[in-house]
Amino acid sequence: MTTTIAALPDHNRITDPLWQRLFHGYGHVITPLRYAGWVTDIETAGGGEFYVRADLGDGTELIIASEFSLPADPGEVSGWTAVRQEAENTSKHTVLYDSTPNGPQRHHGNSLIPLMARIDGLDVPSRAPRLIVSATHTAPYGASHNQTAGIEGAATAIARFSEWSQRLTDHEGYQRVWQRPQADGYPLALFESAGHITTVRVTRSND
User: Fold this and answer.
1) What is the per-residue DSSP string for 66-102?
2) For the residues of 98-120, what is the DSSP string, one character each?
3) How far apart are the first and last CA of the chain?
4) 134-182: per-residue pLDDT in tens?
5) How do residues 37-80 score in pLDDT, each as one tens digit?
6) Structure pTM?
């Protein structure tokens, strides 16, 4: 099977409990970037400061933080900042997005989809395939209906998959009963609530 997600970072910090907790806690940010094809990591800047860094493969990197650094608790994020900078000369950088309380995109708050849509629009040397997020809802008595988002960049689609899944579990009373492992392809998950079944999937667009 063709690899659909970038490799994990390769360094000795991956066994550190703090790194593991942050990498997992910010998985909803990191995973879309990995499906976009970029090795993505949690970095520390000293003094307890953390940020997400993705290698864009052209000598530049993407830095995602919040008002300052990322909080240790992802639930405390009030908005996102994204900066593209030269890996060897970080003084050369461009602010791509700022949805923190005083930023120009503050109306988006901590929603990830607008951030990932901006990132998907970057001019990069290679680009992951465009994707479609869809859901099938089936009632116990057999009726079903489908929901489909449009064709989107990889990072946006994976963020949408996460948002739809979270809405089912946090607001609609569903339990996630199964999810395809990342190594096996694009995300696919099955949810259940009192006999109602919802399947949320990401598939490759043929555009």
Assistant:
1) SSSSB-SSGGG----EEEEEESS-TTSEEEEEE-STT
2) E-STTSTTGGGTT-HHHHHHHHH
3) 21
4) 999 999 998 999 999 999 999 999 999 999 999 999 999 999 999 999 9
5) 999 999 987 778 999 999 999 999 999 999 989 999 999 999 99
6) 0.94
Q: Are 130 and 116 in contact (CB under 8 A)?
A: no
Q: Using the Cα atoms of residue 63, residue 28, residue 35 and residue 114 in order, give the sign of their dihedral.
A: negative
* HSE-up (13 A, CA, CB side) for residue 64: 26
Q: How many CB atoms lie within 10 A of CB 50?
A: 19
The greatest distance separating any two alpha carbons of the chain, rounded to the nearest whole angstrom, comes to: 61
CB 204 within 8 A of CB 131: yes
Instruction: Give the CA angle between residues 183, 63, 95 to the nearest 5°.
Output: 135
Q: Is the dihedral of CA 135, 1, 128, 10 positive or negative?
A: positive
Distance in angstroms (rounded) separating the CA atoms of residues 166 and 24: 15
CATH for 131-204, among 1.10.1760, 3.40.1000, 1.20.120, 3.30.450?
Answer: 3.30.450
Strand order in the sheet with 144-148: 144-148, 131-138, 196-204, 188-193, 175-179
Q: How does residue 1 score in pLDDT terms, banded at 50, 70 and 90?
A: very low
CATH 3.30.450 maps onto the chain at 131-204
182 three-state secondary structure: helix
